[in-house]
Write a structure and sequence with these properties.
The chain is an alpha+beta fold. It is built from five helices and twelve strands. It has one domain: Ribokinase (UDP-N-acetylmuramoyl-L-alanine:D-glutamate ligase, 3-Layer(aba) Sandwich), CATH 3.40.1190.20.
């Protein structure tokens, strides 16, 4: 079924069997972030976050690449992939863990990654592409992508992992969404056409995640 949205003020307000998306926000309290990871993540179905939130999350919960103090320019795709994999493997749904988390939508300026536990979501390619498209149109305040006002800044090649022997991916302009798999988790990567002179950036992360959810199909396992 297609994903739908409903705003609630606390986890206790969520009816049983309703898929829930959590959009993280910037924070500086590591104890609070750690408690969110261990207590809130198992209660949500989907998670959205950017590069600062992802790095702070892994630092707070002693995850992969947690010794990294900051990203050096564009976040390394392999490192991002390792952290997303760890979140879903350690805190996501499995046969031995009572967690609902099966989806993470990561967004940074120049690329997005959608990571999903196999068997729970469909239409990921369209979902991650839709999120990237709205990033370009909303930032430029246009209805469609204006190629004269955007630029491609995503890495042209990258490793899919640094924690294990990952694959080297070279982007194909004719097939920009790249897919790879790792131990029951699927990754969909897309470059973003970045607005050269952004006009509207407030709420952009929310718009990206909402658009991705709109095109996502969740398979209920309740």
């Amino acid at each position: 079924m297609a994903a739908s949205c409903r705003v609630v003020t606390s986890i206790s307000d969520i009816p049983t069997g309703i898929p829930v998306h959590l959009e993280l926000a910037s924070m500086t309290n590591r104890e609070l972030m750690s408690s969110i990871v261990h207590q809130v993540f198992p209660a949500v179905t989907s998670l959205g976050l950017n590069e600062q939130e992802l790095l702070f999350l892994t630092q707070s919960a002693s995850g992969p690449h947690s010794s990294l103090s900051s990203w050096n320019g564009v976040p390394d795709v392999g490192m991002v992939s390792d952290i997303l994999f760890w979140i879903l493997k350690e805190h996501g749904r499995s046969k031995s863990r009572a967690s609902d988390l099966t989806r993470i939508h990561f967004h940074t300026l120049v690329y997005h990654i959608l990571a999903t536990v196999d068997g729970h979501w469909a239409n990921q390619l369209a979902a991650v592409a839709a999120g990237a498209r709205v990033a370009g149109t909303q930032a430029c305040a246009t209805e469609t992508i204006d190629t004269s006002r955007v630029s491609l800044r995503a890495p042209q090649e990258f490793m899919t992992s640094h924690s294990e022997a990952g694959s080297r991916i070279v982007l194909n302009p004719n097939k920009p969404v790249v897919e790879w798999h790792r131990e029951g988790i699927s990754f969909h990567f897309t470059p973003v056409l970045v607005c050269k002179d952004p006009i509207r950036t407030v709420g952009l992360g929310d718009a990206i995640s909402a658009e991705g959810l709109f095109y996502s199909e969740v398979h209920p396992h309740y």
